[in-house]
Write a structure and sequence with these properties.
alpha+beta; 22% strand; 20 strands; eight-stranded antiparallel β-sheet; eight-stranded antiparallel β-barrel; 28% helix
Length: 550
C-alpha cells in the first residue's frame, strides 16, 4: 500500500518513522541539551513550513504549534481556510484532529484510574455487564487496556462502516452491533488499528462516570486546561471559525485529480458523534499546545494541580503491542525506527536515537499529527485541511529534525518525488480496473435476479433495486444499491465481470466497491464486498461484510 494514502499514512507516524519491537528504556536518550534560543527554533520551523507548502502548492492551509521546555513557543496558521478564497487561517482556527482524540480518551480513563474507579487490566464486562464479542472468549477476557491498544484481534478498521462515512446510527446502535463484527486474528497476537474498541472504551468511561464521553472530556479535561476553543464533537465546530476540508475526488480515483473543497463545514464529512471517543475532537494550535504541555509535564497543570498522576502518565506511554520493526535508519529513510509500539492512545517508538511519543489523525479533508520528544520536554502539532499525507510526513519529520538539531534530510523533495511515483502507479491501476470491466463477462442471470435486501450481521441492510431515471438520451436503467445506514453510499451497481458488480456512487468523495454474488438454487444467495481502488481508505471495511439475501 502506498505511503501516500491519507489516513493510513497519518496514523503511522510517517514513512520516516516506520518501526517495530520495543526497545529498552536505556536505548532511548532521556535528556538532551540544546543551546539554541527559542527564536532560532521558531525561525527554522517557520521557514520549513513555508518550504513544505511551496513544495505542495495545492495545500490550502497548515497550522503548527511547538512546545519547548513544557511551554508554547510557536502557534501559527499558514494559508487559507478555503481554496480560492482570501480568508487566512490563524492560530485560533479549528481543525478536525480525528484520532489524536484517542490519547484524550486514554487520559480520561486515567483520571478514573487515579480515582480508583477503573482498573486498566479489569475486563470490560466488569463495567459493561453483558458485553461480548463475536469471539465470546475474547469478549470475556478483553480489558480496558486492550480497548486502547489495538490488540483485540479485529482486522484493520473492522466495524468502521458503522460510522464511516457519516452514518445515521446512534452510539447505542453502534454498541449493539459490536458483538457481530468479525474478529480475524488472535487475541493480543498482533497490532490492528481499531476505532471500534475506542468506542467501547468511551462507553466504559460513560458508564463509570455517569457522564457522556463528550461531557466528561469537556468538564474534566478541556475546561481544566483552559482549552476554550476546542470542541469534543465535530458538529459543535463553528464553520465560521473552522478550516474547511479539501481533497482529490478524481478522476480517475479518489486521492487523484484536482484539489477541491469537500464541504462547507467539518461535520458534513466528519460527524463522528457515535464514535467520538475514537476521533471526535476539533481544536486549534493554541489549545492543542496546552494539551501537549500537560503531556510533557506528566499531568501537572500550571496551577500546580494534576490532570492525572505521574504514574498514570507513565502507564499511558508504556508499550502494549508491537506495531512494526525494521533494521533501522537508511540513507533514504534516516529517521526510520528500529521499533514501533502502541501504548494507550499513543504510538511510542525510537527516532534518531531518542524516544518519540506520537499519534496521527485523519478525517475526510483533514490529516494531522502530534509528536512528543519527552527527553527534550519538547513537542509539536501539525494540522492540515487536505489529505496530502506526504506533506504531513515532510512537516512532521522535518520539524522533529529541527527540534532535535538533526535537520540533514530534505523531506519536502523526497515527498514530492514519492508523490509523483505513487500517483503514476495509482493512475495505471485505474486504467487496469476499467479495462477489466470493459472485457468482463456478462452476469449469468438477468439483473432482476440480484434485486432484494441483503443483510450483514453487524452492518445491517444493503438494498438493491431496479431503477430508471432521466428521459430520452439521458435515460438510464439498471441496478441501484443503497447502504441503509450510510446516506452517501447510494448509487448505480454495474456489471463488472461475471457475478462481480461494481458501484458508481454519485458522491465522488466516497469509495466504490465490488460486490461478488454466489449463486445457490438458481438464484444469488450470498455476496462478499471489497473496495475498488487500491488506494482505498481502510475505514471503508467493505471486506468485513458477509451479505445474505433476506
Amino acid at each position: 500500500m502506498s505511503i501516500r494514502l491519507s489516513r493510513r499514512a497519518a496514523l503511522i507516524s510517517s514513512a520516516a518513522v516506520s518501526a517495530g519491537s520495543a526497545l529498552p528504556a536505556t536505548g532511548w536518550a532521556q535528556t538532551a541539551s540544546d543551546t539554541r534560543s527559542d527564536e532560532e527554533i521558531v525561525a527554522a520551523v517557520d521557514a520549513w513550513v513555508k518550504k513544505a507548502m511551496a513544495g505542495f502548492p495545492d495545500q490550502p492551509a497548515v497550522s503548527v504549534g511547538v512546545v519547548r521546555g513544557g511551554k508554547p513557543i510557536l502557534t501559527r496558521g499558514y494559508g487559507v481556510r478555503k481554496k480560492g478564497e482570501a480568508r487566512r487561517v490563524d492560530e485560533h482556527t479549528l481543525f478536525a484532529v480525528a484520532s489524536n482524540t484517542k490519547a484524550m480518551t486514554a487520559a480520561a480513563l486515567a483520571i478514573l484510574v487515579d480515582e480508583g474507579k477503573v482498573k486498566w487490566d479489569e475486563p470490560v464486562k466488569t463495567y459493561l455487564p453483558g458485553f461480548t464479542l463475536s469471539d465470546p472468549v475474547i469478549g470475556e477476557r478483553i480489558t480496558v487496556r486492550d480497548t486502547l491498544s489495538h490488540r483485540a484481534g479485529f482486522g484493520l478498521g473492522a466495524g468502521d462502516l458503522l460510522f464511516w462515512p457519516n452514518s445515521d446510527r446512534t452510539r447505542e446502535q453502534v454498541m449493539a452491533a459490536v458483538p457481530f463484527v468479525p474478529i480475524e486474528d488472535g487475541f493480543r497476537a498482533n497490532y490492528h488499528y481499531c476505532n471500534l474498541m475506542f468506542v467501547v472504551a468511551g462507553e466504559v468511561l460513560a458508564k463509570v462516570s455517569g457522564m457522556a464521553w463528550e461531557d466528561f472530556i469537556q468538564t474534566r479535561i478541556l475546561d481544566r486546561l483552559g482549552m476554550s476553543e476546542t470542541v469534543p464533537l465535530a458538529r459543535l465546530a463553528d464553520p465560521a471559525k473552522s478550516a474547511l476540508p479539501h481533497g482529490r475526488v478524481g478522476p480517475p480515483l479518489r486521492y487523484q485529480g484536482a484539489m477541491t473543497v469537500l464541504a462547507e463545514d467539518i461535520a458534513s464529512v466528519w460527524n463522528w458523534d457515535s464514535a467520538a471517543a475514537a476521533g471526535g475532537v476539533c481544536t486549534t494550535p493554541v489549545d492543542w499546545a496546552k494539551w501537549i504541555s500537560v503531556q510533557l509535564n506528566g499531568g501537572l497543570l500550571p496551577d500546580g494541580t494534576r490532570l492525572f498522576s505521574e504514574a498514570a502518565g507513565r502507564e499511558m506511554w508504556k508499550p502494549n503491542i508491537i506495531v512494526s520493526s525494521s533494521a533501522g535508519p537508511t540513507g533514504a529513510l534516516p529517521g526510520r525506527a528500529i521499533a514501533s509500539t502502541y501504548a494507550l492512545g499513543w504510538q511510542v517508538q525510537d527516532y534518531r536515537g531518542e524516544r518519540m511519543v506520537t499519534h496521527g489523525g485523519g478525517a475526510p479533508g483533514f490529516i494531522s499529527g502530534t509528536v512528543l520528544l519527552p527527553g527534550r520536554k519538547t513537542g509539536f502539532s501539525v494540522f492540515t485541511n487536505a489529505e496530502e499525507s506526504l506533506l504531513l510526513r515532510a512537516l512532521r519529520s522535518g520539524i522533529a529534525d529541527i527540534l532535535m538539531n538533526k535537520a540533514d534530510f530534505d523531506w519536502v523533495a523526497d515527498g514530492v518525488k514519492t508523490q509523483g511515483e505513487n500517483n503514476a502507479k495509482s493512475v495505471a491501476a485505474a486504467v487496469e480496473i476499467n479495462a477489466k470491466q470493459a472485457a468482463g463477462a456478462a452476469p449469468s442471470m438477468p439483473l432482476d435476479a440480484y434485486v432484494g435486501t441483503w443483510r450483514d450481521p453487524w452492518y445491517g441492510d444493503i438494498v438493491i433495486e431496479q431503477k430508471t431515471e432521466g428521459r430520452g438520451r439521458n435515460r438510464k436503467s439498471g441496478l441501484w444499491l443503497a447502504f441503509a445506514h450510510t446516506p452517501a453510499l447510494k448509487g448505480w451497481l454495474e456489471p463488472y465481470d461475471g457475478e462481480t458488480f461494481r458501484t458508481r456512487f454519485p458522491d465522488k468523495r466516497e469509495e466504490d466497491a465490488f460486490i461478488t454474488f454466489s449463486i445457490a438454487t438458481a438464484k444469488p444467495a450470498t455476496a462478499t464486498v471489497k473496495g475498488v481502488s487500491p488506494d482505498i481508505d481502510f475505514s471503508y471495511d467493505y471486506q468485513d461484510l458477509r451479505l445474505t439475501r433476506v
